[in-house]
Amino acid sequence: SAQRLADRISAVFVPIVIALALATLGYWLGNGAGLTAAFTAAVAVLIIACPCALGLATPTALMVGTGRGAQLGILIKGPEVLETTRRVDTIVLDKTGTVTTGRMTLQTTHTTDGTDEAEVLRLAGALENASEHPIAQAVAFAATDATGPLPTPEDFANVPGLGVQGIVEGHAVLVGR
Predict the structure, then answer these.
(1) Does the active-site annotation cover 7?
(2) CA-CA to 124 of 20 to 30 Å: which in 18, 39, 96, 130?
(3) What pTM does this model have?
């Protein structure tokens, strides 16, 4: 990978640069220059010749790649995984729900005999529309699609862990587990 190549080059190049900096320090000290001038020359050799860009470019690119993936909802376990994806030709998903839209939807509605399904959905959807819960929003969205604009509930109350209750068009409605 690019990072390992950069690491191999740096493993050889950095010791050579350090040896050159020490040689520069020795040369300047041997020629009677002051300690400050000799040290300044040695540091200049280190700063100019050290392959910092080579050592930092690849990790920075991998960090930006994993960060951008996270913003888009793609979780990457580590930079090594990102490096190996260029060789991927097959993706296998091991469980249901691995790839989703991130939004719940209502699939079916079941009612008792003699109960109008559209009316139950409209009343439940009106109450759930006032809730922020993801399942509540799915019910409200399905109710809006099926019956049109929903009425506004009165005396809306969220019952923690159980559901919501309120009055919709004169009907006491309780939606929960």
Answers:
(1) no
(2) 96
(3) 0.46
What φ, ψ does residue 22 adopt, rounded to 5°?
A: -65, -40
Burial class (CB in 10 A: 0-12, 13-18, 19+), 114: exposed
pLDDT tens digits for range 29-76: 999 888 899 989 988 888 888 766 666 666 777 788 888 888 887 787
Task: Look up residue 29 and give its two tokens.
Answer: 């000290």
Percent of the chain with pLDDT over 70: 89
pLDDT at residue 153 tops 80: yes
Closest CA to 22 of 43, 47, 51: 43
Instruction: Work out the average pLDDT over 129-148.
Output: 87
Amino acid code (one letter) for 105: T
Q: Give the Cα separation of 127 and 124 in Å (integer).
A: 5
For the segment 108-120, what is each residue's pLDDT rounded down to a tens digit?
Answer: 888 888 888 888 8
Distance from C-alpha of 125 to C-alpha of 106, rounded to nearest angstrom? 11
Question: 89, 94, 113, 155: which is the annotated catalytic residue?
Answer: 94
List of E strands, the chain: 154-159, 163-168, 171-176
DSSP, collapsed to helix, strand or coil, labels residue 177 as coil
With CA atoms as reference, report the closest residue to 47 among 12, 23, 20. 20
